[in-house]
Amino acid sequence: MTSSSTDTPAPVLVLVPGAAGAPTDGGDLFVLADPDAPQLSVTDLVATRGDGVFETIGVFDGKAVNVGPHLERLARSASLAELPEPDQQTIAQAIDAAIAEHPAVPELTVRVMLTRGIEGTGTPTCWIHARVSDDWTPYRAGIRVAVLDRGLSTTVTETSPWLLPGVKTLSYAVNMAATREARRRGADDVLFVSTDGYVLEGPTSTLLVRHGDTYSTTPVSAGVLPGTSVTSLFDVLQREGTQTREQLMVPADVTSADGVWLLSSTRLAAPISHLDDQQLPVDLELTARFEQVLKGQA
Ligand code: PLP
C-alpha cells in the first residue's frame, strides 16, 4: 500500500497484547493491524497521563540496529516507572514482523511503545510502529545547537528519582517544547545544562565530545538517558585503543573541543557546527565513519 500524495510506503503497525506475558484470553502475542484505524482507548493512561515508556530503533537497509540494548533499556525504563516487565522476546519478534511487513527502504524508524494501559486493567498496551525515516541528511552535515537550562541538578537521580531522570518516558512534551525554543533562537537542536552548570544531553540525543584522542560523554548518573548509540561507538573506539570516558563537562569544555556530536539511533551522528553563537570545528570524514558504525555497517 502506498499513500496517494507521495511514493512513500505506508507505515506498518503491530499490536502486542503479549508484551508483558501471554494474554489471558489465549489470543495472539502480537498481530498486524491497520495503522490508519483507531486503535488506542481514550482511557489508556498514555492518553490521559502521558504514562508509559518507549524506544526508537533505527533500521538501515533492512537491518535493525541494537535491538537487544533497546529492549533492555525499555525494561529499565519500565522498571524505574514501575510498569510490568516487558517480555523482550515477544517484542523482538513483533519488531521483526513489522520490519518484514514493511517494503524495503534505506532507513526505517521503528517505535516500540509500552503504556500503563487502560485505566483499571493493570495490563500494559504495547505496539510497534514502523515508518520511513525522516530525511536527516542536512542534520548529519552540521547543526546549530542552543544551550538551554533543564532546571534540574546533576544530583537529581539521588534527590528526586520520581522525576524519572534518564527514563525514556512517553511524557516528551517538555523535550519537544525545548526543541521549539531552539528553533525560535535560530537553532536546530538543544543541549541541556543542569542547574549546577554541567552539559547534559539533547532532548532526543546523547552528547559526544572529542578532545584530541579522548572521547567524553555525560555520566548516566547525572540524570541522562543511557544512549545505545554512544555505547556502540565507544565499544568500537575502545577496541581501537582510543580513550573513552563518562565525564561531567561544562559548556567551556564543549566550545574548546576538537569535535562535538549529538548521537541518536535514527539521526545517527550530527556534528555541532555552532553552540549558541560559537562556531565549532566539524569533521565530516569522522562523522561519516561514525555513521557507518551507528548503522551497524562498520
Ligand atoms: N537522550 C535522550 C533524552 C533521548 O531521547 C535519546 C534518544 O531518543 C538519546 C539520548 C539517544 O539514545 P539512543 O542513542 O539510544 O538513540
Can you walk me through this structure?
With 298 residues, the protein is of the alpha+beta class. A hairpin with a 2-residue loop joins strand 3 (52-60) and strand 4 (63-64). The chain has two domains: 12-132, Aminotransferase class 4, branched-chain amino acid transferase, N-terminal domain (D-amino Acid Aminotransferase, Chain A, domain 1, 2-Layer Sandwich); 137-294, D-amino Acid Aminotransferase, subunit A, domain 2 (D-amino Acid Aminotransferase, Chain A, domain 2, Alpha-Beta Barrel). The model has no long low-confidence stretch (mean pLDDT 96). The chain is built from nine helices and 15 strands. Helices cover 27% and strands 27% of the residues. Strands 7, 8, 9, 10, 11, 12, 13, 14 and 15 form a nine-stranded mixed β-sheet that branches. A six-stranded antiparallel β-sheet has the order 2-1-6-5-3-4. The chain binds pyridoxal-5'-phosphate (PLP). Residues 56, 168, 201, 203-206, 225, 227-229, 263-265 line the site of pyridoxal-5'-phosphate (PLP).
